[in-house]
## 1
Amino acid sequence: GEDVEQSLFLSVREGDSSVINCTYTDSSSTYLYWYKQEPGAGLQLLTYIFSNMDMKQDQRLTVLLNKKDKHLSLRIADTQTGDSAIYFCAERVLMTTDSWGKFQFGAGTQVVVTP
Amino acid sequence: GAVVSQHPSWVICKSGTSVKIECRSLDFQATTMFWYRQFPKQSLMLMATSNEGSKATYEQGVEKDKFLINHASLTLSTLTVTSAHPEDSSFYICSAREPPIAAGGLQYFGPGTRLTVT
């Protein structure tokens, strides 16, 4: 099965907060990431959190990490129509063959912001 | 953040021909680059890891003779799809890793190349 799981769809009204959830399975994850992909474009790094942190806030974005439950969430405050996109959760997993590690991506959550 | 570019952004080629996609790190030297493939409404699938000056490491199930990767310099990696077929049509995304000493070694993604094989 998937190593990183996300819900596939989220609908939110403009001005409300969005919360996108992600679960992962590999306990050797060092960093966890959130990327944004707009239609026809590549991935834009939004934020990341080191695995020994519980929370990270960056302007409208808040990342929460529950390492015990292997649960990561991204909260977007005051969601705008420009936030409509697909959001990917990713973990960097340590590899014996590569000291930096390898990315495992979730399937992505499509966020639709309605006026 | 760092910038990674890809060229072309969109290419249409005939079945049986080869097409080359370039990936460049514009403001940092990337010793390692990655090539991903993305099918519609799906996640990214890692195809191969490319290290400057050495052979690429391919993921299981990816044909190395079909997807030729060259990482000749610290800022350029190329992916050549040889003898392309319609099933190779996809969105190809490259990624470059910053050196670990800078910002924890973040990985930045290019804008992607849409390949359509007719």
Note: The first strand of chain B starts at residue 4 and ends at 7.
## 2
Amino acid sequence: GDSVTQMEGPVTLSEEAFLTINCTYTATGYPSLFWYVQYPGEGLQLLLKATKADDKGSNKGFEATYRKETTSFHLEKGSVQVSDSAVYFCALSPPGGYQKVTFGTGTKLQVIP
Amino acid sequence: DAGVIQSPRHEVTEMGQEVTLRCKPISGHNSLFWYRQTMMRGLELLIYFNNNVPIDDSGMPEDRFSAKMPNASFSTLKIQPSEPRDSAVYFCASSLDRANYGYTFGSGTRLTVV
């Protein structure tokens, strides 16, 4: 079945550091890929998405590129802020039908001043 | 748009009591999902509906859990009787086109069973 693998956390960075959170997936066909962010005490929020190979999703300075050849969707940000401290979830949605979204286990990011 | 609305935000109940969690999805969304989140088990899909019909309830932990969606604007998740191990944050999410837009999550209900 479908699966999503994320790097283990927590990830601790200093403010203005470069961020990479790795995500790889296993799926049949051509799924859509997502990154969600969960701030403390809140629900998950869609951060960015890519629906086909080589698409780049971006939002709030975060980017991720859908790499079919490496089945990856790594999240990057050039300069993190304290306010980016949250848990980040990678997810995939298979095409069509009643297939549900598969989430990764989440990676906690802590940014220190 | 008010987003996905869940109630209550917090619930504390005694073991053995019935608990009902409520969710109002975004108007026009045709799929609804109930998730449970704990530190130990992470995010677990309990059940999901499409056009008010339950499609997959394989994640419901046991018969004490039940979910209904009587119409397109309302769903409930009921636990009867509740147990301490049910303590978790329960999220409801809705979607119109998950492949292109993903899910919209509510703020969750934090359930504590003592």
Note: The longest helix of chain B spans residues 98-101.
